[in-house]
Amino acid sequence: MILTITLHPALDKIVRTPRLRPNDSARVNIVMEYGGGKGNNVARALHRLGVPVLAMGFQGGHIGETLIQRFAEEGIRTDFLMCRAPTRTSLMIIEEETGHTYSFYEPGQVVEADERERFRNRVLNRLSSAKMVLFCGTARTPELAALNSELIHAAQQRGLRCGLDSSGLALREGIRARPYLVKVNREELSEFFDRSLDDLPAQLMAMHELNRMGISLIALSRGAEGLLITDGKVWLEGRLSMDGVINVMGCGDSLLAGVASAILEGLDLEGIVRRGVACGAANTQVIGSGFIDPALVRQLEHRVAVQAVHFPSS
Fold it and tell me: Are 79 and 68 in contact (CB under 8 A)?
C-alpha cells in the first residue's frame, strides 16, 4: 500500500464562463467539483491504476466532511484528521470563447499544535502497513514543513521509500530528510537553487546536485518537453506528443502516481519513465486531476520515446 500525505487539501471547483470583461459579471456553469490537493490527486490516479492507496492529511468543516464522502464514493480509502480550520477551495475558470484558464488558490488551512501532534501519531501508526509514502504539496507554516520532514525521516528509518513533490519551504525541509525520490518541475527546482534553469545542461547539473545531497531518484517534469530522470548513474528523457489536449491541471500529480506505481512494481528506470510520462499524458485527456484511464495509460506507455541523456562532465 502507498500512503499519500497532503497537508493542505482543497475542494477543487472547475467552472466554464463566457469571456471575462473588467467590471462585468458572468454566469458560470459548474463543470466539476472534487477532492483535490496534490497528494489526493496522486491517490486518485494510483487508485485508478489499481494500486492500493490510503490518502492521509487534514480536512476541516463542512467542506472537509463532504470531501471525505466524495473520496469514499470514488472508492479511495482515506484516513484524514479533522481540524478546526475549514478545508480551502481552489477555483479554475475556463473561458469558453478563448480557451484560456485562470486558477485561484486559497491559502491552506491553519493547523494547530495539538492537531499536528495527533496527525504525527496517526501517520506513524500507519507506516507498518505501507510500502511507500508520498509527501505532496506545500506547508503553510514552518511547523508543518518540519513535521513533513520528520515524517519522511521516520518512514525511511523503517525502511520505506519516500517520495517528495513539493515547493518552497516544504521542499527545502523535505530534502534535508533525504527522501528516496524527489519529483519537481523546473520552476520549483529553480526556486530551490535560486538560479535560472532554462537550458538542459543547467537542469542536469541541478539534478546532479540533488543526487549528491542524498536523493536516490530525481524526476524533473518539464511539461510538453517531457520528463528527465536520473538515479545518479543513468540519465533518461521521456517524451510523448499528445493531440487534442483538453487539460493540463494535475498532469504532474498523475505523473508522480505513474512513477510511484512503477517503482512499487520493481520496473527498471526506462519502465519508470514510460509509466510516469504515460500517466501524465493520460491526464491531458480528461477534465480534473488524476481521473486517468488505465487502459489509455497502457496504450501510451508503448508510445513514449525514451532516450539516454549525456550528462555534461564540466
Answer: no
Whether residue 314 is predicted with pLDDT greater than 60 in this model: the reply is: no
pTM above 0.85, yes or no: yes
Q: Is the Cα dihedral 298, 75, 105, 138 positive or negative? A: negative
Q: Please give the pLDDT value at position 85.
A: 94
Evaluate if residue 210 carries a pLDDT over 80: yes
Average pLDDT over residues 66-81: 96
Rounded mean pLDDT, 173-199: 94
Tell me what the pLDDT averaged over the chain comes to.
Answer: 93
Residue 77 CA to residue 124 CA, distance in Å, equals 17
Q: How far apart are CA 124 and CA 87, in angstroms?
A: 23
Query: Is the Cβ–Cβ distance between 192 and 230 less than 8 Å?
Result: no
**C-alpha cell at position 230:** 536520473
Given a contact cutoff of 8 angstroms between Cβ atoms, the answer to whether 269 and 236 are in contact is yes
Q: Are 81 and 97 in contact (CB under 8 A)?
A: no
